[in-house]
Amino acid sequence: MFDLDKIVRPNIKAVTAYSSARDEFSGEAKIWLDANENSMGSATEKNYNRYPDPLQLDIKQRLKEIKGVGVNNTFLGNGSDEAIDLLIRAFCEPGQDNMIILPPTYGMYTVSAAINNVEVKEVPLMDAFQLNTEAIINSIDTKTKLIFVCSPNNPTGNCIESDSITTLLNEFSGLVIIDEAYIDFEESKSWLKSLDAYPNLVIMQTFSKAWGLAGIRLGMAFASEEIIGILNRIKPPYNINQITQDVALDALSKANVAVKNEMVFVLNVEKNILTTQLSELSMVQEIYPSDANFLLVKMDNAKSIYDQLVVNQIVVRDRSKVLLCDNCLRITIGTEEENKALINALKNIN
Ligand SMILES: *Cc1c(COP(=O)(O)O)cnc(C)c1O
Q1: 77-107 pLDDT per residue, tens
Q2: Whose CA is nearest to atom 14 of ligand 1?
């Protein structure tokens, strides 16, 4: 039922990728005079005068060892944001096709769709922030190309039940994109192991959360070789800069993977402590279950609590105007000290 060829935009099918100097000659040489780089070096102490690897193969090789996903099934982007944008651009004809999102969810899907002049259909989550699978299926039309499922979901924190995702994968002839930005905090619920089973599955992950590398802008997308091939063909040739590639490779060393895992462990412990302490405050109405590094908390008067926290120099995210998130604050798990300061500040608010 799924036919990739039928859902790619015709102009994208016809695009020939930019052929860089490094594409045209990638063997060994002593003297490189083919890319108009500065042969003398850089204006900085460390040299960055050479263009970076367009396909970031060293990073993808390490990711393969860590995640078990093939090099040709892996795309790296300048943040997940780049993968979101490229997926929309590759598959949705502006002013014609549409995509489905499941609010309340990450804001970037809508922004990227708007930039690309692509219609967004919204099918709100139901009780416990789970999918209304029937309504999603009913809202699919012949012009629907993508469904974005965020799991664990931002801002609600929960994972989406696997049965409903399986239904979408089986019933929808477009792409089901699962955004797993927070999956390191609950790795067992990742869909990576199902990649081979579904030709229409795309999984996005990021270095911005558990890895603590939001500043280097590096996102991942995993999918069939055919889908990844399309993304690679239309991306800017050198989309991941050398500094980011160096830092990512360092992060993926055995020792630093252990550092990441330890941070995830500590943050999950802190999340449990913060949940207990928040639940003892009278202003707190509900703390939603979270598989991520944040808590969505329903409060008596979220806006006023937000304002008073700001006076205490503590900034959380006010989500009280967001669909299904009345009076909710989204609170990122901080360090032990930061979480204590937050609880103290809340105790002094009335
Ligand atoms: C933080 C976040 C991302 C990460 O985006 P980057 O561009 O990789 O920093 C992606 N998706 C969701 C749902 C997020 O909350």
Answers
A1: 999 999 999 999 999 999 999 999 999 999 9
A2: 181
Q: What pLDDT score does 260 carry?
A: 98
Residue 88's contacts (CB-CB under 8 Å, 6 or more residues apart) are 99, 112, 113, 116, 118, 146
For tokens 């205490």, the residue is 312
Mean pLDDT of 206-211: 98
The sign one gets for the Cα dihedral 129, 130, 132, 136 is: positive
Instruction: Report how far residue 206's alpha carbon sits from residue 194's, in angstroms, rounded to the nearest whole number.
Output: 19
| Ligand 1 centroid to residue 348 C-alpha, Å | 33
pLDDT in tens, 168-195: 999 999 999 999 999 999 999 999 999 9
Computed over every residue of the chain, the mean pLDDT equals: 97
**Residue whose structure tokens are 């012009």:** 143
The pick from 101, 105, 106 for probing ligand 1's pocket by mutation, whose C-beta has the most ligand atoms within 8 angstroms, reads 106
Which value, in Å, is the radius of gyration of the alpha carbons in the chain?
22
Per-residue pLDDT, averaged over 322-347, amounts to 98
Ligand 1 mean position, distance from CA 220 (Å)? 10
**Of the residues 186, 209, 317, which should be mutated to test ligand 1's pocket, given the most ligand atoms within 8 Å of the CB?**
209
- Say how many C-beta atoms besides its own lie within 10 A of residue 332's C-beta: 16
